């Protein structure tokens, strides 16, 4: 047993080393700075919980927490549903499926600045294709739903919706992971469902989703985590944190600004700590909800520990 | 060769239409970038480029390659990807495999740590990592850009591998144990080949992440000679608005290798064992 | 009354391999047809064609008088046991069995009750809460059977549903299948390798070979009047001994190019010398199977197997006289393999 | 101060700069020229693309104890470094220099980089606000071109005269007959920012902070400042500036380049971009005034880091970079107004024959230039006020509320700034 | 000579279920032991315990005289056919068979040659290039068998390796297994549900029940002297009829609390009235199995099955006289189920 156990540990070692060296250690270093006044240039003094006291009063942080949480609430479910839907649509060999898969992945590969620019065009309030489309069915400058077209870049609500919309096009990662998980599901399970005359919805609910449950659970958690630190570059290009004062200021943007523009590293670390706490809380809540559901399924048929 | 699918014809047709619609929805916005890049640089900026370009020219591409020093940047990016992506997949799959075999407590801990690692905002890591690489005298080399391969580029990927390896029937593991395979051999001969779709998918994702990594090079790279594509692109993005086509051309050029990798990888998704891709 | 199941000119290709090549088959409503055939003959493919799991490349399938060729499996109302059980890994035994009912919108309680009853009928009542990977092979197979039997379809398709069960359980499951079948009067196609199962269970037996039906008849017919040499040698454990007509056994009036067949059960072995009526052979090997023994004999250049009571078996190396009554001989065309009526047989007609 | 002076061919001098590709190319040319002019010297250019990237690089590298020897920074950001002692003063070196003299440079620029009596950095350029205008439009609608000494009200009137619909008719907000008519050309584009209002307030005799040397709060509640704010925030109501939606659809710069903006208040930066304009003629005019001429300083400077191990070599490079040949190289980009008087007044900057024809106004305004206060938290103050002002500008908040909000948003920031000095 | 395989007090728990509860078993070197037992009895668990795939909770396992309890599976040098085949989906048939050899560093060509030979021996020579999912159930099983037989281990562990094969193939595979076993002299443990396979193949038979060995003996012993009532009823298809000693059959000198057993093969059925020696019963149902027929009889309150030649079978509803010779009767303690010697039996000892 020893030889195998040693090898297993070796197999895990690079990752653990990376994790410790590149994430855990740096993260700890930063987090300790949350209790200091650090400006990266000269001083660094311990100030206890002052940073936290300040961020409790900081309107930017308030707004960012609200924005990040609302982004999480909308984007996580929407992204997941869309990614799963697309993965299930495209997992089979049909004409055009390959192209479509590549198409879904591609937005994630477009450089962020260009991607932001593209959305700036798309969401252009006057001439943007998105609004042009919305105006198609309507008349008198109203959309097909009879509402005024959204002001993606100037109205706070619409701007946040715009950011969520943007996020829906970068689901490549979730999509690919669901797709590969779906490909690994046993065809026999589907034959059984087919024989029983299960409708598409029932197959989804009773076979596919439960079998994918562990993967989906992980993806939900990951997306939650990611959405609380959503890459701010496209958002920055498109809305620059506004419309004012803080309509699309997310936590990640606050951290970056405080740390590297205002050189308030200690304070940024406190915001990062806050983000971390929020994320861990969100993840724990979700995990409680997901755990029972995700226990079986793909993992259910899993192997037992062998060399343990 | 396409084996007879089980779905009856109308089903398949509907799926084909769906695929076409998805392609259109996801690709047409990107067309804007393409047509934007085909405009003549130096003209007044437009509100948005037309979907169908009025005049087509590649002047922007020439200028981009020249001013952005894209060839050298691409070479640097290639080096990073060529070393980083395989290394990252190796780390991820080895770790994912080990997790299926180690005691449950270890697994749970490592997965929790991975989740925690994903939780840490990237900006919070920037400075300590800089200090770390600086201490190791590795700034201004490509090493810090390859280093994230050690955490599998994203701590999500070992977990995904873990789930994939877990889904392999226990029998297959038993077989390998009977044949006295070491965990390493089991990983290489039995487990890894069975999760090829996962490897292909994660290869594409890892490549995209590595290829478009901009925060790390921004901090670690000083010398223009080691700039990677995202940095070169960032420089071009700072150009005046009338030179936007140049930036877009560079963006398109930057995207092309990723497109290639995605295309190849997605081809591999299909290549699973079994009628529907399942083992 | 319309037939329960009709296949006409059914062809099916799996991958590049033609698994079925022209199956014409009519199963009466309420009939239990057993399908026999060597490994790879296309038995599972036949069931899959009926269920609609694989698209047939030619021909038509009708169930209960309804052409289902173009219908999806779910629309065909068949219930199937897969050769490899095929349980849903994420469901408990109870949920696996109740799956079909739940899909059809049955109330959770009612479905659970029926599942429990079905599990009890296959002796798995205490496994309801387990998941498939926690079951032994035979237990999985029984759960799969329960899942199929719990429904009331137009056709049962059972692919070696008892292969992993012990003899006792197999007998009782066989009875259970028959009982369900008789109670519901459901047309059933049952694939098995077990001869006694085939004989005991089947109203008729279809012998499949290389994607074609070699013989279709009652167990009696298949046993006593194999239509071809192949069926003769395939049915029975072991199958008929086949010898050239000019070999050691030489019944009167056999065509020259024929081959003779005789079941091991009909080969009488007597200690050599006690009578001269028969050929002289040597015992090569003896296998005892409980009450009976298989005696492997060498008659000149030919190998012959005899099934004799274990108590009176000869010992290896013994020289014995081998005797076969004329009425137990079968003749087949040496080239086509088709059955040729023998005088003795012709007389009984 | 532990540099090895004897060794000329020691470590190369590292210079961190940010800019567009053509600016970076100019720096590269500068470095090359220096290396050629000074045998054995080497310069390593560290290139960032934007000012933000530069800040990130400077801060991480200083924190990581590997700062560049020199970096280029805007004086509005330099306060954080000056205040925290990250910079090596150059007063003594300048005094001792054979080739560089204080009087070679515009004192307004030099002053902005002086901190507690020490010259912290040497300015590379000295820019200011100007009114870019579309001369073709002025001619077409027969509106008089702006002249030196014009008043804010002249600007507004001119803008009104140039705000036209697609048919070329003037559009006036509030006039019933033109209500709802889409505006094709707006008269004026000006960003609602503190640094745009500041010169106007100064011109009106007011100030933006209580004490420019040790600011503790904004003083926008003075009558002088109020008047300017009032006028400024009125612009959208008059309808001469594009609405927020229109700005988001097409920003001022693009709007001007597209011929849809008659006047645009900006610094020298946009010149290069506008030189690509072929569709119409354009020029620059001085910033309008209230009582007295006033303008705001825009300037970048070379700063030397205190922990640099190579300060002597760095200084030698500085001497070259700010010399006539060095400064001329940088002036060729056209983006900036050279801080070196001799170069600013030469053809290298004035570049006769290329627009803007009235480049001289950038030099004429120099005596009226004022810097914003040097305080560590100035970037934060700009961001915070920007948000309030943008809201007020486009949504028409009442003046009192705006002033209150501005004060509330900046008080603590000033406090922090004061604390860190 | 050391024993090939020794298990002492082996306990094994799967999940929470005790699958083996105290197995003591010695298999001689070169012996072929057949394991019989009902579904869920622990047969597969027994093989897994020997292979070391599941850690035993108590006891020791020794292979070829070497205590392997603490060794990992790979060090035990066993070769196993899994009940569910366990083929690797990404490998071709050839590579699946060669898997073990390639791992051990065998030359690619040599391994391929051996794989081809092994495939040929199980009749899969033409499937070498296919992948498992392109095979029929029986074909998969044969490939699994080939993969096990291609090696030369200390112990073969075969878990129902022939369950999905037709009778003819099963007979020939059985011969193949025996041949390999005889050639290599390898200790073999073979799980099967097929009685004739067990009888024909096994040097000895172990009957497993509920994780314990119920009887261990030669096929003859198990058949003729079942140690318990359970073995009696389990072995045979169908197993022994069991009747109370005070029931319709009443041999002389039976203890009161005993139960009598008689194999269906030994129940003679004669048209009622032709003789009075025996009990009178009624035929309820008749199953014809080729040459034989199973006659389900009712003797008063008791059900009895008789196996008679199909030609002389009675019809359902017939009243018949049932006779059993005394020497064919077995007696068991009604409470413990243990065998009780009968006078007739005692005499033959
Ligand atoms: N993974 C498991 N988890 C829990 N219980 C199990 C597991 N596998 C088997 N069992 C249980 O252990 C007992 C023995 O199982 P085993 O597989 O050894 O039976 P078996 O004799 O091989 O039966 P079969 O003939 O049906 O294959 C059974 O009661 C079974 O339900
Ligand atoms: N997915 C597949 N792809 C290609 N060929 C296949 C596939 N499945 C089965 N075959 C082939 O088709 C033929 C018929 O297979 P089928 O499964 O119907 O046989 P079967 O009669 O059920 O055999 P068994 O008794 O071994 O289960 C066989 O030759 C088999 O090799
Ligand atoms: Mg089959
Ligand atoms: Mg088993």
TrEMBL record, chain A:
SUPFAM superfamilies: MetI-like. This is Sugar ABC transporter permease. Pfam families: BPD_transp_1. Belongs to the binding-protein-dependent transport system permease family. The lineage of its organism: Bacteria, Bacillati, Actinomycetota, Actinomycetes, Micromonosporales. Its main location: membrane. The keyword Transmembrane helix applies. It comes from Catellatospora bangladeshensis. It is a multi-pass membrane protein. InterPro entries: ABC_transporter_permease, MetI-like, MetI-like_sf. One of its GO terms (cellular component) is plasma membrane. GO terms for biological process: transmembrane transport. It is found in: Cell membrane. Residues 65-286 form the ABC transmembrane type-1 domain.
From TrEMBL, chain B:
It comes from Catellatospora bangladeshensis. Residues 74-265 form the ABC transmembrane type-1 domain. Its main location: membrane. It is a multi-pass membrane protein. Belongs to the binding-protein-dependent transport system permease family. It comes from the Bacteria. SUPFAM superfamilies: MetI-like. The chain crosses the membrane at residues 16-35, 78-99, 106-130, 142-164, 195-214, 246-265. GO terms for biological process: transmembrane transport. It holds the Pfam family BPD_transp_1. This is ABC transmembrane type-1 domain-containing protein. It is found in: Cell membrane. Keywords: Cell membrane, Membrane, Transmembrane, Transmembrane helix, Transport. One of its GO terms (cellular component) is plasma membrane.
TrEMBL record, chains C, E:
Transmembrane segments: none annotated. CDD domains: ABC_Carb_Solutes_like. SUPFAM superfamilies: MOP-like, P-loop containing nucleoside triphosphate hydrolases. One of its GO terms (cellular component) is ATP-binding cassette (ABC) transporter complex, substrate-binding subunit-containing. Keywords: ATP-binding, Cell membrane, Membrane, Nucleotide-binding, Transport. Gene3D superfamilies: 2.40.50.100, Nucleic acid-binding proteins, P-loop containing nucleotide triphosphate hydrolases. It holds the Pfam family TOBE_2. GO terms for molecular function: ABC-type ferric iron transporter activity; ATP binding; ATP hydrolysis activity. Residues 5-235 form the ABC transporter domain. This is sn-glycerol-3-phosphate import ATP-binding protein UgpC. The lineage of its organism: Bacteria, Bacillati, Actinomycetota, Actinomycetes, Micromonosporales.
